[in-house]
Amino acid sequence: MKPRNQRLALALAALAMAGVAALLAMSALRDQAAYFYTPGDARRDGVAPGRAIRLGGMVEPGSLRHLPDGVSIRFWVTDGQARVPVHFSGIVPALFREGSGVVADGRFGADGEFAADTILAKHDERYRPPQVAGALHKSESLKR
């Protein structure tokens, strides 16, 4: 085989290997990816029970219930269009409360309830260091 043909065959083999590696990586990522849905999106798209997703929205005020076991909670997540019941067992983040943003990793059950494995509390974008927040609070109370 001529050197030119040998280089061409080697380049084609390398390209084919790279394509196979890319396909394998995409397949693995598709199986592991958790897609983000709001309650309205989940209702519209009809998410299949048992499929791993991320559910995001606001914790509906007045919906948070602590169960007697001391570690489980139930609450509703809403996006203003739809609402979804959520069940979680474990320790929730310190920022988690009614009326705040939340992202929950988990799966829908056959009954339509979302079983969360992980809860992530979202905060507003107006972050202030504690010293600044304290000074602002103090200056606002002096104005009154």
Structure commentary:
This protein is α+β, with helices and mostly antiparallel strands. 35% of the residues lie in helices and 30% in strands. The protein has 3 helices and 7 strands; from the N terminus they run H-E-H-E-E-E-E-E-E-H. The protein has a 5-stranded mixed β-barrel with strand order 2-4-5-7-6.
Structure at a glance:
By secondary structure, this protein is an alpha+beta fold. Helix content is 35%, strand content 30%.
Summary keywords:
144 residues, alpha+beta, five-stranded mixed beta barrel, 3 helices, 7 strands, elongated, disordered C terminus
Strand content: 25-35%
For the biggest sheet, the summary is: 5 strands, mixed, barrel
- Shape summary: elongated
How far is it from the N-terminal to the C-terminal residue, by CA?
91 Å
Give the helices and strands, then pairings.
Layout: H1 3-32, E1 35-37, H2 39-45, E2 53-59, E3 65-66, E4 72-78, E5 83-89, E6 101-108, E7 114-122, H3 130-143
Parallel strand pairs: 1-2, 5-7
Antiparallel strand pairs: 2-4, 2-6, 3-4, 4-5, 6-7
